[in-house]
Amino acid sequence: SAVISQKPSRDICQRGTSLTIQCQVDSQVTMMFWYRQQPGQSLTLIATANQGSEATYESGFVIDKFPISRPNLTFSTLTVSNMSPEDSSIYLCSVERQGLGTGELFFGEGSRLTVL
Amino acid sequence: GDSVTQMEGPVTLSEEAFLTINCTYTATGYPSLFWYVQYPGEGLQLLLKATKADDKGSNKGFEATYRKETTSFHLEKGSVQVSDSAVYFCALDTGRRALTFGSGTRLQVQP
User: Fold this and answer.
1) What digits encode the pLDDT tens for the residues A24-82?
2) Does B27 have pLDDT greater than 70?
């Protein structure tokens, strides 16, 4: 199994500011995924981050709003830029369980952001 | 596009009751189907999966059968325990290696 640590676990932010969420994995992984879970809603994929290449964003998400870094095979960051109250969500980092087929993901505990 | 629909919660049951959480999906091709669970204060974790029609996934007393004809993957357990209280997410993967999730169903089991 993979152990995923996310920081911060929660934060309260002011409108217009930016916050960077860190995701650290205890083993090397090829693909890392960033999801968002808005209050009372499902998880939505923001982007897929591969080491050494630009992140691939899903429809409705753009790099200027959610820049992602992936400097090595165990670490990634997601920045939520110019925040508004609509960005209040839980942001989750996940990685694929290697060698066991598609879809089996490990998740961090999430970063709960509240934007005032 | 791909989508997953789950029954709304919360579902409140007494200990040892039978559990069913409904899940239906819309997808192109032949997706793999999953149930993930999130216990209080913990991250999501895989509960069970099925990769083709008529497959049954099972784990910890939970079962779900991949029904292609009804595009369903309902989660069942014969006798729930208080420790099963959690949020359950149905999800699918069409080979993109990222998941499409349902909205989650909160289960509360009372002693």
Assistant:
1) 999 888 889 999 998 878 889 999 998 888 899 999 999 999 999 999 999 999 999 99
2) yes
* Interface residue A107 vs chain B (CB under 8 A): yes
CA distances, B89 to each of A32, A42, B95, B99 (Å): 20, 8, 19, 11
Please name the residues between 46 and 65 in chain A that touch chain B, using a CB distance below 8 Å: 48
How distant is the Cα of B75 from the closest Cα of chain A, in angstroms? 17
Contact B93 A108 (CB under 8 A): no
Distance CA A74, CA A27 (A): 6
Q: Where does the pLDDT of residue B68 fall: very low under 50, low under 70, confident under 90, or very high at 90 and above?
A: very high
Q: How far apart are CA A80 and CA A113, in angstroms?
A: 10
CB A70 within 8 A of CB A49: yes
Q: What value does the mean pLDDT of chain B take?
A: 93
**Secondary structure (3-state) at B106:** strand
